[in-house]
Amino acid sequence: MLEYIVGLSAIVIIISLISYFLPTIIAMLRGKSNTFAILLLNLFLGWTFIGWIVALIWSVTSDNKPQTIVVNNNSSIEPRNEFKALSSQGMKPEQIDITNLNSHQEKIHNLQKLKQLLDDGILTQEEFIQQKNQILA
């Protein structure tokens, strides 16, 4: 009879520990980057049920993936390259208006300078929008 009680007690303790550390187990299985922090929260505040719920929610949410941002600062695009691209698309040289290409490049260059002034804090957002509209008009 005593062996039965000891065996039952061991099973209850094991099930209780698994239930208590369920958020940590889930975090480990999901390979969370902050598994150790979840373990600490679970260990020290899991007994408050609110701490256990927070740890559980934290363990099932997804990690933020790093985002790659590509910035193209190539402001030295020459009209000749655009001319080659347009002619490779089947346009004949007499159909391509070089003056439009030059004015297009000039607008792009002015917009890049304007954006730099905004980024440097020299222009306000309203001034930037006003100047941008003038360039694009």
Explain this structure to me?
The chain is mainly alpha-helical. It has 2 domains: 2-60, no CATH class; 79-136. 69% of the residues lie in helices and 0% in strands. It contains 7 helices and no strands. The radius of gyration is 32 Å and the shape is rod-shaped. The termini are far apart. Residues 111-136 form the SHOCT domain. Keywords: Membrane, Transmembrane, Transmembrane helix. InterPro entries: Phage_imm, SHOCT.
Number of domains: 2
Q: What is the mean pLDDT?
A: 81
What is the string of SSEs from the N terminus onward?
HHHHHHH
Structural class label: mainly alpha
- Please state the CA-atom Rg, rounded to the nearest Å: 32 Å
Count the helices. How many? 7
Helix content: 55-70%
Query: Uncertain segments of ≥5 residues (pLDDT<50)?
Result: none
Question: Gap between N and C termini, in Å?
Answer: 92 Å
| Main sheet record | none
Q: Rough shape? A: rod-shaped
Content of β-strand: under 5%
Question: How many beta-strand elements?
Answer: 0
Domain SHOCT: 111-136
Transmembrane segments: 6-29, 36-58
Protein name: Superinfection immunity protein
Pfam family, one: SHOCT
